[in-house]
Amino acid sequence: MSGIYIHIPFCHQACHYCDFYFSTSLKLKEKIVEHICKELELRKDFFNENSKIESVYFGGGTPSVLNHTELERIVKALDLHFDLGNLKEFTFEINPEDVNDSTIEIWKKNKINRFSLGLQSFEDDLLKYLNRKHTGEDGIVAINKIKQAGFSNISVDLIYGIPGLSMLLWKNQLEKIIDLSIPHISAYCLTIEPNTVFGNQLKKGKIIPVDEVLAQEQYFYLHEFLEKNGFEHYEISNFGKPNFTSKHNTSYWNGKQYLGVGPSAHSFNGEKRMWNVANNFNYIKSIESNSLPLEYETLTKNQQLNEYILTGIRTKWGIDLNKIKLEISKIEFEQFKNKINHYIHSNLLKIENDCAILSIEGFWKADGIAGDLFL
Amino acid sequence: MENIRNFCIIAHIDHGKSTLADRLLEFTKTVSKRESQAQILDDMDLERERGITIKSHAIQMNYTFNGKPFVLNLIDTPGHVDFSYEVSRSIAACEGALLIVDAAQGIQAQTISNLYLALGNDLEIIPVLNKIDLPAANPEEVKDQIIDLIGCERDSIIPASGKTGLGIEAILEAIITRIPAPKGDVNAPLQALIFDSVFNSFRGIIAYFKVVNGELKKGEKVKFVATEKEYFAEEIGILKLKPEPRDKVSTGDVGYIISGIKAAKEVKVGDTITTLNNPCEQGIQGFEDVKPMVFAGIYPVDTEDYEELRYSMEKLQLNDASLTWEPESSAALGFGFRCGFLGMLHMEIIQERLEREFNMTVITTVPNVSYKAYSTKGELMIVNNPSDLPDFSKLDSVEEPFIKAQIITKSEYIGPILNLCIGKRGILKNQVYLTQERVELNFELPLAEVVFDFYDKLKTISKGYASFDYSPLEYRQSNLVKLDILLNAEPVDALSALIHRDNAYDFGKKICEKLKELIPRQQFEIPIQAAIGAKVIARETIRALRKDVTAKCYGGDISRKRKLLEKQKEGKKKMKSVGSVEIPQSAFMAVLKLD
Prior knowledge:
A: alpha/beta, nine-stranded mixed sheet, three-stranded antiparallel sheet, 15 strands, globular, B: alpha+beta
């Protein structure tokens, strides 16, 4: 199973929390599209010959800033250079303000079958605080329109742990999601990254980060509430109804190969991780001269294992102890088991079918645990 | 003997000593261009990286002047105040010295104190004005300073540039014509002055010496006067870029001896070598047993590594006789060693060498000086570790060592420097204008205050335009209290410090704040308290860590996060568990990082 990720590095406006690579000037949009197409051609042999592409994911930035021609161009290039015969999931990230009859029409025409909607919240003042362009009502309208157009595979992004989001408000939001019968939710605790508006404000003491106790309470409630409503909590921040988990994202966590195209996109071919330059201008310049604007690192066996631990532990499938056992010495494995046992005793972890799986409390401390289990 | 010239170089750090030495070696073809690398004489990586000389070195050059062949022995000396005894012995082995002064920066305190040492040993001083090619050079003013200082003729100062090679020939000529040949009696019993030693893992200790009287022959039985140990001169020779064996080393010359000595402590700098057959009546004057000035605990992070640490310390002591240590134990850190160092730089070097050369991860505790405590019964106790201070009820008084400090700076920095020294309990004794802009300040200061962060602060407030040197004075009674630090209500003995009572509150508050910053959040809340006896004088709290996960982990985040976690894991390996609290190495040195 292989996937392709396309990064569209443009947004109408910058959210105060976001540290992904994007530009709010759309001047270079057409050029970038042209060069993404060219990069797809340059990298058409990225996968093994008989490797079928099962998922395509347009992320950003905001892919819904693409107009008809631009989207069509990229999809055509994808079709031309890769075997999409087995394509099962084609996800497109959209913002509510971009959803209307004509855009839906375009997306439908281009074989998109899954949407990831940047909703974040239903509360207008919170949306404003995050510097989102849409209102809560826009979100609901967008969801209904997509559903009316016949799409059922919809994911929405939610953010909790926002200063001002009380427990009561959070519960209301989740009720609304259930009422709208959305089958997939990505819910993120607000993280204040250094190179963002929030990051700067925090440094200057202008905002107070949310109470950790409240954020934790919101997370535990989220877990409990969604499981009660038929969702699987299959990754730290991801919840899906049966058959609605994201194939593309799951491939990241399962160590599968993926090709990332566009400025700042990352790729992985099983042993090498590559990343494109995070700058539109330099990206164009490099592709123009037929050279890939990327750097890479080759993972050692240990690094591969550590990444397996890091990503695996974040999922409900956990990490396969037999797989680890095969790769390390007896003594190392004993030490590894001791650490696992320690976490079992503190109720952060359990073993099922020889797999080490984090509890909900464990999920909340997954980074520390993963780092500790590193080989 | 008339054709031998022995000289050393006196210079402040960064005044271009090593580069100028490199040029001399190249000009005399002692090294070929091919063998040449920057700072030839500084052969420890640490020396090259820091641009300092830690060990003394010697190298022989051959140079023909007016048709006559000459042997020039350059003895390179350390430049830091921690090593002033070594410097004094190197100077004693010479008849002349190059005084190198940066034409832009002028004379510095360290230069002056070493210059006085040289003058005291009757060395012929050849002033060299280096870096004359710098745009910021101020040759006439610096010449004035030099003339003021040594009373030389203006035209005897040699303009030079280590970078371009300017003046090298003139320097060599001056060495030959101005520095006297060594004096001494070839027929007298052997007296050879040891000025340094190095450790070689195959040959054992190689001692460097200068023959003051007599001759040393290969295969002779020799005796070291101060240690009274006897050896067999297995190999002797002279020091070129590499040692070159010879059958004898004669009066006035500089050489080395290998005699199967295993440990550096058997070879004391300043000791005299003589022959067993025809021994000299007494050793060369000026020998001292070097005493450590600063003490600190060194502990393995992993208590299992104690024996390995001991082995590493033994190995280190093989080539650094000035390092002293004895086993000690700490309730917080387990088994380790209380080590004595010549000064702070020496301490840093030892810690760094343990980590680099022996791959040991160690914790160094807050450094302190040696105190004298008097009990109510009138007994004297030497206290090298704050936690050894007797109980308050049995304590009559405590004395701490004072030093005489000499600071040379530009007049515009006098104010801040006075403030700094007075804040460190210093007493201004004297203030002399060397030139209109340059001032020499003399203080009496408690050594303990200098040990902490004095030097860094001095450099900061003077924008680097202050140089500092010191020599020990006597012990004086002080109102000192023992400040204890408690983490999670457990006292951590390794964090205790002896502080002047007037500074204790301020110090306690700052150290609690600093520890809060340095100790990472853990699964539970950790109170930090500073206490004098049972009285808590300051408190901070490290909040418990609840969330330890970032929400997203997609394509690019995976490698970034892996690297981050790997780095954290490395950091954690260097942490010490005390009770239930994990403390990073840096926290044990927190005292040194207070503002």
